[in-house]
Amino acid sequence: MMNTFRIWNTLVLVAVLSFGVACGGDSGDTGTEPVGCQDLDNDGAFGATASCPSGQDCDDGNASRFPGATETCGDDIDQDCDGSDAACCVDADNDGVFAAVPECLEGTDCNDADGGISPNAEDICGDNIDQDCDGTDAACCEPVCEFTDGSPVTCGDDGCGGSCGECPEGANCLDGTCFVGSPDSCAGRCDSYDDQANCQCDNLCFNAGDCCEDMCDEGVCLEVPSLAGQCGCDDLDGDGYGEGPNCLGADCNDTDATVNPEEEEICENGKDDDCVDGDAECEFVECTEETDTDGDGYGTASGCEVKDCDDTNNAIFPGATEICGDEIDQDCDGVDLPCSGVDCIDEDGDGYGEGTECTGPDCNDSAPNINPAGTEACGNSLDDDCDGTIDEDCPEDCVDADGDGHYSVASCEEGDDCDDTNATISPSKAEVCDDGVDQDCNPDNEACDPTACMTDESCPASEWCDTNTGNCYRPTMLQWWAPVVYADTNASGLGWDFFTTVDFDGDTTAGNNGDHIESSPLKAVVYTSTVETGTHAYLGYYFYFPMRWSDALFFGTEYENAMRGVLLVVRKGDGEGYGQLELVLTTTENNIRSYAAAGMSFLPIPIGSAKLVDEDGHMRPAIYIDTESHAISANKNWEDGFPGGNGVIYTYGYESTVPENLIQDATYTLTPLTDSIWADRFEIGPTKMFDEFGHFAGDDTDDRSLAPWGFVDASSSTTVLAGEFLYDPASLVQRKHVVGWGTFDTRYVENDFALSVELLDMYVYEDTDGFGAGNPDVYINLYLHDGSGAERRVLGESTGLQNSWKQDEVELNTYINLMTNLERYWFYGLEYPGKPYFGIEIRDADTLFDDWLMNPGERSYQTFLGYKIVTWEYSDAAIKVTNP
Length: 884
Hints:
Layout (H helix, E strand, L loop, with lengths): L3 H13 L154 E4 L2 E4 L20 E2 L2 E2 L257 E3 L4 E3 L3 H5 L2 E5 L36 E9 L2 E13 L10 E13 L8 E8 L4 E5 L11 E2 L2 E4 L2 E8 L6 E2 L13 E6 L10 E10 L17 E3 L2 E2 L27 H4 L1 H8 L11 E3 L4 E10 L13 E8 L5 E6 L6 E2 L1 E2 L8 E2 H4 L4 E4 L8 E7 L6 E2 L7 E3 L3 E6 L3 E8 L2
Parallel strand pairs: 7-15, 8-18, 12-13, 17-18, 24-25
Antiparallel strand pairs: 1-2, 3-4, 5-6, 7-17, 8-9, 8-21, 9-10, 10-11, 11-12, 14-15, 15-16, 19-20, 22-27, 22-28, 22-33, 23-24, 23-26, 23-29, 29-30, 29-31, 32-33
């Protein structure tokens, strides 16, 4: 059941939360009855039971409830079995006000077919239309210059913005009558007054006992415009500046609180912010790449014809794709695009996505050029037209030996790679000037611009020089903190200790990678992730090796596709805008190690201290990768020599090096997980990248060949969830090291990986009281999946992995605001294929056996997006679910 309190609080939540899309199902088959299926209520639909998985009747004991039945709104009954009761309130004209119909108690729109008519509209007088729904058309204003007794009003406002007359010189106008008297006294206004009393006004009202005694005591407010400058402070915008002796000073614009003599002038914003000499002109600054802080092609310099409205976010710029309803102005047009309510979840804006009103389904909803109407591009390893086949139009005789996405000129007509043995040379590469190498396959070697940067020292502070382009730029946090990598190598396996990409051999089948190590170039690429809370950035760097190998004669451990990770925990806001390193986590085959940064002290104590080395003029973390096992640590002493004398030192750069020797220096590039293997996480099969969720296809049978969303910590004394290293690092590090963090947020402001469940409020309507007495002692068990598919209790009475909560003696029908009671009401897990998003239990804690505050008394599994009230007869809860 649902009471009126739930209805009211639902309306409040709806005003601030976005709704999820609820999709109904089709009616059941009414033909020959399958084995195990029954239609007990003879309504033509089989009951949905364990013995009849095809049944769709949500209540087979009620003939009025079946798929396709007529829905009755607002009765808390789901007649048509679509999972929810129909809303009684509609807003057909999208003006934000529900239609005034009997079944909608909140409806006040008297014409729901016209968006210009609602109680929020302004009435236009005399047009015979009731725009503001007050029941009448507003009358146009008629001046009134007489008192109620018919005597004339000789001065002052006529009620329509005009005047009833002016007083002669020496007289003042009060309440429509001219009188002679000093403006600083009440002479001529009252029978009883203090002749010598100064006017002590407060907001133009005489105070009790001043001037006209008893007048203000009786609640009479005398509006005296002519005395405004003599007493108090007339300050319309509340900034302290206005007219009167009690003001801080005069205000040049008393309708804008950001304009007054204390404000700092902002040039060319259309305001005289400091009330001095009007709006100041901005000093001319040429529009260059250096003035484009976020690198999105738009800057804020005065010389920029089109300016960026947020130069700290490269997803926000004029012309960017606007996302409706997120309160962010992505395209810089001054407003956020309101959502139309169309049933189509389309993240990339190409018209294809999830919902009944989309053009069709989308196989990649993060790339607008990929959809069923797209054109297949040859050789890009993408299914551009969503037909399930990748690069089907590529000629069979084309060869891409260096794996750079371009075919050799000599191999086929489509070939345009002038050097197919070098992945740094192709038509898509940037030309390096004056180096004698034709990087872009244009025979002309580009001459260097004499004004181009050559080193970081030639760029402004905190900027780096891209020597490929000659441009200075401000690095991202991932680039700034990119570690120096010391990789130990073994002469027994040349190339087997080099990290690269999963598709290094030119295909996305991971099961054959071990066979191609010595025949394919191993470009040095590191996968990355960025997850942020309000206090910390969690920077992930992931190293993929085609083989975990061993040179042992007997019992050596070998398997295809080993991935290891490094997680940098950086406190935001310090150190040239790039934060302060606090903790480094590294992975081995099946455990996670932690290292404290200098100056940090944690409990339990990490296994060591993180080392930093000077690179590019600032200190970067150093990491050390063992040969064969590829286990990573953060505090070895390999700077002066590797254990076996062989090793490669990798640093971040603008081009990926293909190492060829056991001893050399190399550079690696960065590629986001979201643009690569994470996007393929649900592509599962023996010829795919993964044979199970989070497990690379290949010859590993012991669950060690794991992607980051499957990383485990088998040796930890604390519980670490599979994949938490990637999708919920804040919970991971706080659980591993309880003491030492200072201010620490657990709610993410950026997270492209976690499924989020927010518990907003709840009601308990009935206490079954199987055991115990009194009002129920309520607690919630909330279960989310981790990367292994296991259900993890993230909220419980006392053992929740992310929070614990119980409220004793809850009176029935009492509103419980979980956002305040829980304090942390947000929880994180992973979407796991084939499993519901989450499970939930509402329980009553008793001495012997805990009662269920749900009917039926069992764990309730749910899968939906957005906001929804989930009802279990004895209780209900308002829940919001988001998924990247």
